[in-house]
Amino acid sequence: MAAVATIASTETILRWYRNLVVRKYDGSQLRGQGRPKTAADIAALVIRIARENAWGYTRIKGALKNLGHKIGRNTTNRILQENGIVPAPERGKRMSWATLIRANLGVIVGMDFFTVEAATLLGLVRYHVLFAIDFASRKVEILGIAVNPMVAIGWNRWHETSSMQPTGFLLGKRYVLLDRDPLYTQAFRRILDQAGVKTVRLPAHSPNLNAFAERLCFRLRLNAWTV
C-alpha cells in the first residue's frame, strides 16, 4: 500500500477525484435554454423596497416599473418568500425570523442532508449524510449515512435518539427546522412530535431560514474542492 501511495501526490489524487465528480454530474449537453433568472440587482431592489415600506406585491411591481424594471407579480412574491419576507398585511406585525431565532437559540436544532462521493472499485458512489446542528453550541450530530437517503433517515440510532424521552442532541430542545424534502415523511415527523419536539417545515426555496445547517453544507462542499 505504501508503494502505491507514492505513485502520485495528495494534490494529484484530489485533482483526479474532482475530475471524476465533475464528469459524473456534467449535464451541460442536456441543459436546455430555460427561463432566465431574475437579475440579482433587481431582486435586491425588491427586497429593499419591501423592507423599507409596507407595500404589497402589486405596488412593488408598479414601483419597479416606474424605475424601468419589468417584473411579474408572482416573481415578486417568490423573491420575498425566498428571503423570508411575509405578505404586506402581516409585515411589521410579526417578530422577524432573525429575532425569533435569537430568542429561542438554545432550544432549536437544524436538520439537513449533505452528500459525499466515495471512490470505489466500481466508480464513484454517492452517500447521503443526515445531520443535525445545535444552533446554540454549533455542535453537529451525524444521524445516518447511507447510499439510499431513506435508509439514512430511518437509521436505528436515529430512532433510538428520537424515543419518547428526548436524549442526546435533542435533550432540552423544542424545535427542529426541516426543509420540505419529501424524505422527511409524516411518520418521521410524528416521531419527533411524540418526543415533544416540534418540527417546523420551512417555506420552499428558503435556505436562509435554516442558515446554520446550510452554511455547514456549503463549507463542506467548499473544503472538498479547495483542499
Outline:
This protein has 227 residues and is an alpha/beta fold. It is built from ten helices and five strands. Residues 156-165 have low confidence and may be disordered.
Describe the structure.
- The chain has 2 domains: 40-94, no CATH class; 100-226, 2-Layer Sandwich (Nucleotidyltransferase, domain 5), CATH 3.30.420.
- It is built from 10 helices and 5 strands, in the order ααααααβββααβαβα.
- The chain has helices spanning 2-5, 10-24, 40-52, 57-66, 73-82, 97-103, 149-153, 156-161, 186-194, 211-226; strands spanning 108-120, 123-134, 140-146, 175-178, 198-201.
- Strand 4 (175-178), helix 9 (186-194) and strand 5 (198-201) form a beta-alpha-beta unit.
- Helix 4 (57-66) packs across helix 5.
What's the structural blueprint in terms of helices and strands?
Blueprint: H1 2-5, H2 10-24, H3 40-52, H4 57-66, H5 73-82, H6 97-103, E1 108-120, E2 123-134, E3 140-146, H7 149-153, H8 156-161, E4 175-178, H9 186-194, E5 198-201, H10 211-226
| Contiguous uncertain segments of 5+ residues | 156-165
How is the largest sheet built, in terms of strand order? 3-2-1-4-5
Categorize the overall geometry: globular
Give the N-terminus to C-terminus distance in angstroms: 23 Å
Oligomer: single chain
Major β-sheet annotation: 5 strands, mixed
pLDDT averaged residue by residue: 78
Report the structural category.
alpha/beta
From the structure above, extract its key features:
2 domains, 227 residues, 5 strands, 18% strand, globular, 10 helices, five-stranded mixed beta sheet, alpha/beta, Nucleotidyltransferase, domain 5
